[in-house]
Specification:
Radius of gyration: 24 Å
Helix content: 40-55%
Shape: globular
Distance between the termini: 9 Å
Number of helices: 18
Number of strands: 17
Structural class: alpha/beta
Strand order of the largest sheet: 3-2-4-5-6
Length: 571
């Protein structure tokens, strides 16, 4: 591992400090590209305007006409947290703006696969729908949209994924990544796209005289859902996304949130009044995702839709139980998959440029998480496959991949598909995460072809694990109240949480935890004693070592003390 301190532009630091930003925060923001104080303004008025998102005008007219005609609207969601929150935002928002007949349908991960298929369009039609609205999917569903149109449905596609070679024949498409869209926030999540559609719809209804600015329904209560889905989908937190997340967090901390989000905080043992982006990414998001992985995402969506605290609590407890089951399945799969991956290279050798593993006993709902764990361990683009459980698809395997910086996973799949026609039956995704379906007997061909692309595209520097940090930490900043201040800020993908690095002295170290798989440390940091913990690490450290660490607060018998959460070491 190579630990590298970020460049910190002194002019930006000075400008932020002059504007009243705390010196430590000024340094952190400047290192992340913030140049002026107004970039930190998270007011709703600073959001990018809805008309700049291509298709919002057409979408607003389509929805406003449907509401005026009292037509039936069915939302087709995705089975992850972004899809679930986007569905909840769509259903709640459309009802808020006057739609009386709004339902939803979420595909089954195993039986239906991802996206709007022709079969799902037929199911929507059977429900008596007039208008089909996709959230967090649909941009690549050319056949599914064509089937819906053939059945007489109007179709609105809202998505944020990369389009394929042809756009679906929908009546309106809202996607920042479609050709011709000048919207600056290309990283907005699916739930954010739907929120923008609702803002455009409200403006259209104002123009039609349905209500005025004083009497119009407030959309702000939807922002906790927008914030949760945005962080959970690990999209880049550009300035616009940070504003959406910050607004959602403020409302949650003030106690203004859907009953389901409050119940999920309780089920996870987290405090909503001090909610952070870490709660979204590591507590609430996984519990909702677990429903789509092992059961039915309807559970997650219902939890986010109900206004009954008792019903919300019951659903949150169910989601928590499913998540515990997911962790158990993942633990066994992760161990097996790591053994398989490590068998691909010798003890003293470097791993291959890319890793692909498949086992008939793997659970397809968990392959993405396991791929992420292997990617983290080996620092290699990784695909993990499971045999399809869909009826009649037993000869297919479904893979989920995770990548490293510098390797565009979807583009790699595209190249494999072109070089070896017929090997990949279907694929899609982003730069860092993607999925594909492969014929079972073609797995060896895929494995070799994927590794070949990685070998061609990746160099030694990219294959070396690099941990960017914010450099040394002054001891004066090792205070619990300052750590609390840091935690309240919006951190995440593309706006990394503060991670510091410097050489420390190890006073003592021991393994702790039920499985003795965490390293507990007592350190000297610039001559001052500090406790540290390195979760999931068991190898001992030398007496002096360059550590990368985040800050946390450990509470014990009423005393709050700063501790270091170790992220990596360079010896």
């Amino acid at each position: 591992m190579k630990i590298v301190a970020r460049d910190i532009p002194p002019r930006a630091v000075w400008a932020l400090e002059q504007a009243g930003v705390h010196p430590l925060l000024a340094r952190l923001y400047a290192a992340r590209g913030v140049k002026a104080h107004d970039e930190l303004d998270d007011a709703l008025a600073r959001l990018l305007p809805p008309p700049s998102l291509l298709g919002t005008r057409e979408a607003a007219v389509l929805l406003a006409d449907a509401i005026a005609a009292d037509r039936r609207i069915v939302v087709v969601a995705d089975y992850d947290c972004d899809g679930a929150t986007a569905c909840a935002v769509a259903v709640r928002g459309l009802r808020l703006l006057g739609a009386r007949h709004v339902g939803y349908l979420v595909p089954d991960r195993v039986a239906d696969g991802y996206g709007l298929s022709a079969a799902i369009s037929r199911r929507v039609h059977e429900r008596g729908a007039d208008l089909l609205v996709t959230v967090d999917n649909g941009i690549a569903s050319v056949e599914g949209v064509a089937e819906a149109k053939a059945l007489g449905l109007d179709v609105l596609v809202t998505d944020h994924h990369l389009p394929g070679p042809a756009l679906p024949p929908a009546d309106a498409i809202v996607n920042p990544n479609q050709p011709g869209c000048a919207f600056e926030s290309k990283s907005i999540a699916g739930v954010g796209v739907m929120f923008y559609v609702l803002m455009a719809l409200r403006a259209e209804l104002r123009e039609r005289g349905v209500f005025d600015k004083a009497s119009q329904p407030k959309l702000e209560p939807l922002l906790p859902l927008v914030a949760l889905g945005t962080v959970a989908d690990v999209v880049r937190l550009d300035a616009n996304n940070r504003r959406l997340v910050a607004q959602g967090l403020k409302r949650i901390r003030a106690g203004h949130m859907p009953a389901g989000i409050a119940a999920l905080f309780d089920a996870a043992g987290r405090k909503a009044d001090v909610a952070t982006t870490f709660d979204f990414g590591f507590a609430l998001g996984p519990r909702i995702n677990a429903a789509g992985r092992l059961a039915d995402m309807t559970l997650g969506i219902e939890c986010l839709l109900t206004d009954d605290p008792g019903r919300a609590a019951e659903l949150a407890r169910t989601l928590d139980a499913i998540n515990r089951e997911r962790r158990e399945i993942e633990g066994g799969m992760r161990e097996q998959a790591l053994l398989m991956a490590e068998s691909l290279f010798g003890e003293n050798d470097e791993p291959p440029a890319a890793v692909s593993v498949w086992d008939p006993d793997f659970h397809e709902g968990v392959v993405g998480i396991v791929a992420s764990r292997i990617k983290d361990r080996l620092h290699r683009p990784t695909f993990v496959f499971a045999t399809s459980s869909a009826p009649g698809r037993e000869d297919e395997i479904k893979g989920s991949g995770r990548s490293i910086p510098g390797f565009h996973l979807r583009d790699a799949l595209d190249l494999v598909a072109k070089r070896h026609p017929g090997v990949i039956l279907k694929f899609g995704g982003h730069a860092m995460a993607a999925g594909c379906t492969v014929a079972k007997d073609q797995f060896p061909v895929f494995e070799r072809a994927f590794a070949q692309v990685a070998q061609e595209w990746l160099d030694a520097a990219t294959l070396t694990r690099r941990l960017d940090t914010d450099g040394p930490l002054s001891p004066e900043y090792c205070r619990a109240e300052l750590v609390d201040t840091l935690h309240r800020e919006v951190w995440g993908q593309g706006f990394a949480p503060p991670t510091f690095s410097e050489e420390v002295e190890i006073i003592s170290q021991r393994l702790v935890g039920e499985g003795k798989n965490h390293l507990s440390l007592k350190l000297l940091h610039q001559g001052r004693p500090v406790d540290g913990i390195w979760f999931g690490h068991t190898d001992p450290l030398p007496a002096r070592v360059l550590l990368a660490f985040r800050l946390d607060v450990n509470e014990w018998r009423g005393e709050r003390r700063v501790q270091f959460l170790v992220e990596g070491a360079q010896t």
